[in-house]
TrEMBL record:
Keyword Transmembrane helix attached: yes
Annotated InterPro entries: Spore_YpjB (IPR014231)
Name of the molecule in the record: Biotin transporter BioY
Source organism: Oceanobacillus polygoni
Transmembrane parts of this sequence: 7-30, 50-70
Keywords assigned: Membrane, Transmembrane, Transmembrane helix
Presence of the UniProt keyword Membrane in the record: yes
Database matches in Pfam families: Spore_YpjB
Taxonomy, superkingdom: Bacteria
Lineage: Bacteria, Bacillati, Bacillota, Bacilli, Bacillales
Length: 90
């Protein structure tokens, strides 16, 4: 179960890094293709709310999945302990 949590953290980190790199290189591409700097500022200011929205929504989803995974892990540990106690009684 701990391996699942580690996998979830790694996948989430990889997705967030991928999104960040995609946005960064998209802005660099815009700067290279457009010579007018005023146009670049307009593009960057238009993409900033999207970045914040993606971070907030992704963070909420990650936090929820992490919490649910932790609760499931704790329940499985308690169930395993209860099964082991029952075997000792018999």
């Amino acid at each position: 179960m701990v391996n699942r949590l580690k996998l979830l953290v790694r996948v989430t980190a990889a997705v967030l890094i991928g999104i960040g790199l995609n946005i960064y290189f998209g802005v660099v591409w815009i700067e290279a293709s457009v010579g007018n700097t005023e146009h670049i500022v307009e593009k960057q200011s238009g993409i900033t709310p999207f970045i914040w929205a993606a971070i907030i929504v992704g963070g909420c989803i990650t936090a929820t999945l992490s919490y649910v995974s932790w609760r499931k892990y704790r329940a499985e540990v308690k169930a395993k302990e209860a099964r082991n106690k029952d075997k000792l009684v018999d």
